[in-house]
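# step 3/5: fold
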Amino acid sequence: MNFNIDLKELARRESEQVEWKENGDDIKIAEGIVKTISAFANDIANVGGGYVVCGAKEIKDEHGFPKIQYTGLSANQLKEIEGKVTRYCQNYVDPAIIPRIVEIENPENNSTRILVFVVLRTRHAHIYRDGETSKYYVRISRETKEARNGVLRQLLTEKQEIEYFDKRTNTRATEADIDILVFRDSMQEMGLLFPEKSLEDYFSDREQIAELVSPLFVSTDLDRILRPRNFTLLMFGKKTSITSKFPEAYTILSIYKGIDRSEQTAERYTLTGTIVEQAKRSIELLNTQAYTAFDKTSSKPNQVKYPMRALQEAVINAIVHRDYEVPEPIRITVFADRVEIKSPGTLHWGVDKEKFLQGKASPKWRNQSFAYLFNKLQLAQSEGQGIPTIIRTMREEGCPEPIFEIELESLTCILPAHPRHQIIRELQEIQDKVILQKYQEAKTQVLTLLEKDLYNFRSLDLYCEVIAKLKLPHELYNFLETKKLDFSLVNPSTLINIAEILAFDKDNVPYQNMANRALSVAMSGKIEEGQIVKAVVNLKKIGEPDDVIEFVGESMLKYPNLAHNSTLLEKRATARMDKAKKCITAIKDRKSNTTTKKRASVLCEQLLEAAQRDLNLALENVENPHEKNFIEKDFNFLNELKQTYKKTSAK
């Protein structure tokens, strides 16, 4: 094969594919070169191989970026390095490697040469043995490293030196480790249980339960005992058998109230049994986190915290595609603002990382049997659709993009909560501070929220509550004046709260005017039934009697069940008595003419009779002893008014 090597092109390649060596005649350096050559041949990253360039080194330019300096090799150096490396590749590497050797003129000094070892990917797993150690090497990023644990198993599986985990025979288990009831139920659920077949037909080393699934058992050569494959045991095994044969094949699900693990208390669930049972229980627990936040002011009033579909797909991906040879459980951690699902084992070596993060990667299975059977159980999507579904459903619900953290021996999927729920969490924190009487802290935090969204009615309500606790109506007035709050955009119940606080200072005219304006806007809007009583109480303080009488009447027509509300009846009665007092004043006034006095007299009698009816009905329906006492005092005042009216009209 003819290799036309362009050094400038090599310098632009990923460091994963190129190793630069200034020299190589030293034994240790030569051994390092051979280890790198074996790593390129193993090619766990599936990039096709790599290049070892001797006579050049990687330095930094004046801006801190990588730059290649060509030091070159003399004729003797070149011959010595080539000899050592090719000899070590024959003697120390198994199977032996024969790299292609290319000699290039040094572009910066034509008296020296650059030596390039071109290494192609092979179908073997190459081990480096120097008489002292026996190790497999792989290329991870820009470094040559020993393949250990999961990385080693990944290499050997890829090179087909060992069978895939799910199809591997479990030599420590027998038919007795399979739960017959679990097996029957699962087969029936998958539509793979046929009445004409006996259990022995399925428990076989020849019969396949489905076209793409290996036989459930393997018959050993020595004793002819049926041994289950790993997927058989993990899908249909007894709980005790799975725990003893795979002590790390379980799931830990933890729920924290805060945004980190600093909370002293947390819910913790250890989920064992078959991987199907673990998946179903995990999804069941996580579905309680996908609750809906209601906001009637939003164009989308019902907003889930997490899409259930995204939670399910993330859990299934973690269970189906995890590396069961990494001695760690699956960890699902729920925080107030996110769900983290950490699966042992890194991304499958055949999956392109960038395409994976975009949800566009071609499907690759670490455990093909699990993927197929979970699909038959309708727990998993069709091949390759899990990650795209997570990304799509999160976007559709308006949630932040999912985050995937890919590490050497783990893959973590992070699902951030919808922003509305994050605000709810902050509001709950403020509410807790109010309960604990930390009013200044609560005020500071809620003002921060209002800087982000001035018209969030929950934040405004909390701010009003804190101001009321601190008895600072002037701060509320200044806040409303400074922010130029448009009352027409504010929730009616919030406006009632504003009016109540400002009405507290009866002698301050600007406060009373603003309270009256807030209350007027509230009553002109869609005020809720539960807020009507509160509105009337405040209206009685700052409004005119006619306003109270009219508003109570309209409310009772709109909500007939309020017709017997003792508070509304009492407030309307006192408003009518206030008007009756003005009528008596007009009758007493010497400047009033006869017609005016007659009209005032008729009106006064009507008002006093109506007040009497309201108070009678209020007394019949009152439940609160304190309120009953008020009504009885109103009766006394009503009787006094009647006596005054009689005396006045008799003159």
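# step 4/5: annotate
The domain at 251-417 is CATH 3.30.565.60 (Heat Shock Protein 90).
# step 5/5: archive (pending)
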